[in-house]
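Can you give me the bound-state structure? Components:
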Amino acid sequence: MSPELMLTKATLAAYLGAVTLSFVYLAYKDEKWNRWMLNLLGVGIALHLAAFGFRIHSFWQIPENRYFLPINTFFGALSYLALAVCGAFFVIESRHRLGILGAFVLPWASLSLGIAVCAASPEISGLAPALQSYWINIHPMVLMTSYAAFGNAFGVGVALLVQEHQIKSRKPIALCYRLPSIEELDNLNYRIIVMAFPILTIGIIMGGVWAENAWGRFWGWDPKETWALITALVYAGYLHMRYMMGLRGKKAVYVSMLGFACVVFTFAGVNFLSELHGYLSKG
Amino acid sequence: MQIVVAGLSHKTAELALREKFALLARSEVARKIKAAQVSDAVFLSTCNRFEIYACGFSNGADGPDVLLRFFEDLIGKNSSKEDLYLYSGSEAVAHLLKVASGLDSLVVGETEILGQVKESYEWAKNEGLTGKIGNILFQRALYVGKKVRSETGISVGQTSVASVAVELAQSIFGNLSESSVLVLGAGQMAEIMIRHLATQKAPKILISNRTRERAEALARNFKAAVLPWENRGEALQEVDIVLSSTGSPEPVVTKEMVEKSLKNRRGRSLFMVDIAMPRDIEEEIHSLEHVYLYRLEDLEHIVAKNLEGRAAEISKAKEIIESKTGEISEWLKALKEGREVSFKHSSRPKMPRTESARK
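Here's the bound-state model for the whole set.
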């Protein structure tokens, strides 16, 4: 087994451990579980960065790949996505002391890395000539950063639905007093989306510029392009309804979840439709 | 050198008798303790209990007997032996740990008693009543009281209707320091609720009552504002929390009023608490989006659940107390034999988080 794969598996173990601890923390009100969860997550992120370093190293052994980032395969992309979700969670939670949301966010990161380890090939291949551009270091990274943020917003949204249901039921269980308040979750969900939406938009426009350079057209209704646009429109709709119509709470979460479903489809599902953007195709 | 405790509590004595003890001046009790030649003593006086812990008696005196006579002396022959309890040795130690842990309290696990034990001990220490054994015993008791609360669920969950309502409000709005409150009615329940909210620094409290004078009287006490009764419908657009406890036979907040206000609330949550009998707020309002209506029985149900939860933790608390009683008894025995031993150092337990510590 290559050092990269070994480190990636260790990372997955650390992430799964952090997920387990986050659920223990959800069930038992003891700060030590939160501390352990964050420590383990920190270890996981460090291992993940090391694994990514090894991947870059072996990627650059092929001369034409040099100085490009190895996210041209499903494995590389999923792995980076997991790293970004955890990194975003680490940043958001340490700022807001919301370790309790770990149980709602971290499972998605583990799932992403888990699929990479179990179902995707970690092999490294040479970049197709069309992809040998500095844009590959920017365009997909920017987009996946926004996806990671949307993933965090999705987790916050789930927590909001749980909390809202608790209070509406008039029979709240202890969990209700552990989760952040409805208004806090609602604001956090909104603030993450407000932050991620421009990143998504910039990422899409960058894609257009790259397409202009590489393929000679800015936009071509390739399925990936179409679905990225749909995703952006759904989130734009969310922001619009929130600003103009005061849409909040449960219904707002449903719209943002629809947006996240589009993210998942754009990221993963479209690969089977798109010739140009497939991780499976040679670009 | 045996530890003895004599006392009475809500479990053994009538309120009238407990009141007599509660009214005794501390300095008077201290003076009498010294006069009775009892040393190394601490007494604890709250509205629910009065007890004296002592372990120094003049040579040859029977400790329990001295304390019994001392009780008679305190308030005359008003108390009978059935009103009192008397423990000595490790039973007395166990009793103190139970009291400090809130296991002997009217509301199991309540935290106030721990502060009262601490304060009584410190007062006795400053008065020069305590000696080596008393000092260590009470410091251990305070430690165990904290440990039990942090390691078991004995103090988890609010146990009064008003504090449950405040906790729910926090689960909806988070920190209440930006929330405004509309109080309908100016009776006793309204006052209790406002008092609880005032501790959370809610910046704006509006009181509205059909008889304006009573609203004004209540508002003066809490720096609240008075709202004319007819304007309560419009106020629903602005406020976050509504507390209603009027004596009105008809609902004072209708679904129509709330529906109208929701148009201008832009999706902000509205928490309504109806503790009036008959109801003040129409029940169908709860089905509206962003509105959470809790009635008296909902809050009482949560209180009952919390008390049940606390009761379920009693056995865990007792285990801790039993093991700590053993440790202390060992220490006393060693002391008697002239050996010097110290307690195992364990990490300092943290106090359980209360609502004030919530973000």
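A couple of observations. Chain A has a mean pLDDT of 90. Chain A is about 70% helix and 0% strand.
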